[in-house]
């Protein structure tokens, strides 16, 4: 199987065709830019700790839209857990990059590491780990990740950063 490595490339077509065609597609991360609005800051003038989760959600939402656009409305991924480590401050008017990388794929869940990076100085503002589970909305319970979805996730998996 051939490996095709694309760095910083936003893919707009289905990677399933590439996987089935004998090419393993390796995308190290998914990137989304967010603009920090004044209303997302606190009395100290920096981004409020709750706003980081909105930025991470935007990154995950665009990740899912890009790689799982043909979703079944009776099943799908839902957020089960998220944790955030705050590294550096960010301020209104800055543009942050949300870098989302799959670091673990399990039977019913997968984990995304997400970094907020200042686009001007390259500093990491925060790092999060988000666990999403595959969920059956009719039965209201977690179920195994379908094989075609798991193939996509495994093709996107990278080693966790330190």
UniProtKB/TrEMBL annotation:
A Pfam family hit: 4HBT_2
Keywords assigned: Hydrolase
Domain of life: Bacteria
Family statement: Belongs to the 4-hydroxybenzoyl-CoA thioesterase family.
Organism for this UniProt entry: Oceanobacillus bengalensis
InterPro entries: 4-hydroxybenzoyl-CoA_TE, HotDog_dom_sf
Keyword Oxidoreductase among record annotations: no
GO molecular function, one term: fatty acyl-CoA hydrolase activity
Protein name: Acyl-CoA thioesterase
């Amino acid at each position: 199987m051939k490996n095709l490595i694309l760095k910083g490339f936003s893919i707009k077509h289905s990677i399933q065709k590439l996987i089935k065609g004998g090419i393993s597609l390796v995308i190290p991360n998914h990137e989304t830019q967010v603009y920090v609005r004044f209303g997302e800051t606190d009395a100290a003038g920096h981004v409020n700790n709750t706003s980081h989760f909105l930025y991470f959600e935007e990154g995950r939402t665009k990740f899912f839209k890009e790689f799982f656009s043909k979703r079944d409305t009776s099943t799908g991924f839902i957020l089960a857990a998220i944790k955030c480590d705050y590294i550096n401050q960010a301020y209104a008017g800055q543009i942050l990059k949300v870098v989302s990388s799959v670091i673990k794929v399990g039977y019913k869940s997968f984990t995304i590491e997400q970094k907020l990076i200042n686009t001007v100085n390259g500093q990491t503002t925060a790092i999060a780990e988000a666990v999403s589970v595959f969920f059956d909305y009719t039965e209201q319970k977690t179920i195994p990740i379908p094989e075609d979805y798991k193939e996509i996730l495994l093709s996107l998996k990278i080693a966790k950063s330190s």
